[in-house]
Every structure is written in structure tokens, then in C-alpha cells.
Write a structure and sequence with these properties.
253 residues; Rossmann fold; 7-stranded parallel beta sheet; 7 helices; 41% helix; 14% strand; globular; binds NADP nicotinamide-adenine-dinucleotide phosphate
Length: 253
């Protein structure tokens, strides 16, 4: 019964921000599970180097793009459309944060964060939907996985006002899209990471933050890859509209 339950052979995936940090952890999980995986972010050199590194495990292709504006999102959809007839898996991972004291928080800190974390996520999903629907059936539903954050649900002391709001928006959008797309056999779920050491968290005091994590450690690549593989595989065919924290217990502490 469980043979191949978690395999992704024959699937085509796109991971935004797939060359670095959490995106890279997910990319490696998908590639090693058999999915042909496209990765896209601003840095062409990072995308190409990581795709090259992943080629020892399977197929990974770099499609560099700055996804903060609609013209580029359209361009990326077009590029994928020229290469593939269908897309089984979309991982909306690219994201940015902004920290500033309440009294000094600038408008730019809202625009930059909401544009990439929410607006681009929506328009990339919209642009790729025809290809995702083409890949979807009751036996093999398409997948959209949005990378949210525990920050959507907690009032941390990090002064990341627009970031927390953006992730709460991602969480709600996940539910709205899941409801809308269920009839098309497209499953939409969110992963909410706690603390994974990446560039985004490099300015955090790790020792201090771990004190708030019951499992007393940070997240690692196999933690993230495991959940992403599960949410992309047949093992999760009956799950949509969910929000899964992966945080060592931080949310319940
Ligand atoms: N690390 C954590 O503890 C944590 C916790 C909760 C949620 N998250 C979420 O996880 C996701 C990944 O973050 P991370 O921690 O892995 O941080 P990261 O290493 O800073 O990764 C951010 C990713 O977004 C890409 N990106 C940034 N601006 C972009 C743009 N304009 N167009 C396209 N791609 C862009 C970056 O690639 P380029 O620089 O090449 O563009 C990079 O791959 C984010 O959504 C973040 O909010 C992280």
C-alpha cells in the first residue's frame, strides 16, 4: 500500500526562492523524490549554481527572475509555459522581511514586503493556474504550497509589522484559494516555519530564540524537506486549506 506513497516521479515543480535557505531545503527534497524542479529568484548565479549542485540527485533547472513586479511574473509564467505543458507543484516560498521601530516604520517597509510576500504570490499563482489545473485530477491533485510563518499567529517582539501582517494574509489566502480550487482538484496548503537559520534570520540571537522553542533547537533541512515532500505527495491527497506549523513547539509554548 505505501510503496511510492511519498515519491514524486514524473511531477513538475516550481520553487520560488528555491536556491537559498528554506527554498533550497524544499528544492532538494523534491529533486531527490523524483520531481523535475524549476527554481526562480533574483540571483541568476545562485539559481544556476544550486541547479548544478542538485543535478547529482535529479533534474533541477534555473529560471532566474525578480518576482517583485507583474511584468516579470508574466515573463516567468511564459517561460515555464514554453518548456512544460503542465505544472504539478507550485511552492510560493520567496519572501522578504523588514524591521523597524513602530514610530519609524516606513511606507517602503510595507510596499516591499506586501508586494513580494502577498501580491506576487497571488499573481504568480493566477498566472500558473491553467498549467496547474492541466496537471490536476482526483487521483493526482495539483499542489500549491505557500510558505507562511509562525509570525502570522504570534505577536513577537521583532518589530516586523508588515511581515507579520503579510504572513497572516498568506494564511487567509491559502484558505480562500483552497476553497475556490477544490473543484479543480488543486490542493492549497501553507507551511508555517518557526526558526530555521537562513539569511533572513542571520541577525537573530539564536541562543535567545531557542529559549522559546520547546524542542530546544532550530529547524534543519530534513525537517523542512520532509513536510514539503509529504504535502506534495499522494500521502496528503485528502488535505487542503491547512496551515502546518513546523516550529519545534514554538506556537504552543
Ligand atoms: N528562516 C525562517 O526561520 C523562516 C521562518 C518563517 C518563515 N520563513 C519564510 O520562508 C521563506 C524563505 O525565507 P528564508 O528564511 O529561506 O530566507 P532567505 O534565505 O532570505 O530566502 C529568501 C528567498 O526569497 C528570494 N527572493 C527575495 N526577493 C525576491 C524577489 N524580488 N524575487 C524573487 N525571489 C526573491 C531570495 O532569492 P534571491 O535573493 O536570489 O532573490 C531567497 O531565495 C520566506 O517566505 C520567509 O518569510 C522563514
Amino acid at each position: 500500500m505505501i510503496e511510492g506513497l511519498f515519491r514524486l516521479d514524473g511531477k513538475v515543480a516550481l520553487v520560488t526562492g528555491g536556491a537559498k535557505g528554506i527554498g533550497a531545503m524544499i528544492t532538494q527534497g523534491l529533486v531527490e523524490s523524483g520531481a523535475k524542479t524549476y527554481i526562480s529568484s533574483r540571483s541568476a548565479s545562485a539559481c544556476e549554481a544550486f541547479a548544478q549542485e542538485m543535478s547529482q540527485y535529479g533534474t533541477c533547472i534555473a529560471l532566474p527572475m525578480d518576482l517583485s513586479n507583474l511584468d516579470n511574473i508574466e515573463r516567468l509564467c511564459q517561460q515555464i509555459g514554453e518548456k512544460e505543458e503542465k505544472l504539478d507543484i507550485l511552492i510560493n516560498n520567496s519572501g522578504v522581511s523588514w524591521g523597524a521601530k513602530l514610530g519609524e516604520f516606513p511606507e517602503k517597509g510595507w510596499d516591499k514586503v506586501m508586494d513580494l510576500n502577498v501580491k506576487s504570490l497571488f499573481f504568480l499563482t493566477q498566472g500558473l493556474l491553467p498549467m496547474i489545473k492541466a496537471a490536476s485530477s482526483p487521483e493526482s491533485p495539483g499542489r500549491i504550497i505557500n510558505i507562511s510563518s509562525v509570525a502570522a499567529r504570534i505577536a513577537g517582539g521583532l518589530d516586523a509589522f508588515s511581515y507579520n501582517a503579510s504572513k497572516a494574509a498568506v494564511e487567509n489566502l491559502t484558505k480562500v484559494l483552497a476553497n475556490k480550487l477544490a473543484k479543480d482538484h488543486v490542493l492549497v496548503n501553507a507551511i508555517a516555519p518557526g526558526f530555521f537559520p537562513t539569511k533572513m534570520t542571520s541577525h537573530f540571537d539564536e541562543k535567545e530564540l531557542i529559549k522559546h522553542i520547546p524542542l530546544n533547537r532550530t529547524g534543519n533541512p530534513t525537517d523542512m524537506a520532509g513536510l514539503a515532500i509529504f504535502l506534495c505527495s499522494k500521502a496528503s491527497n485528502f488535505m487542503t486549506g491547512t496551515y502546518i506549523p513546523i516550529d519545534g513547539g514554538q506556537l504552543i509554548a
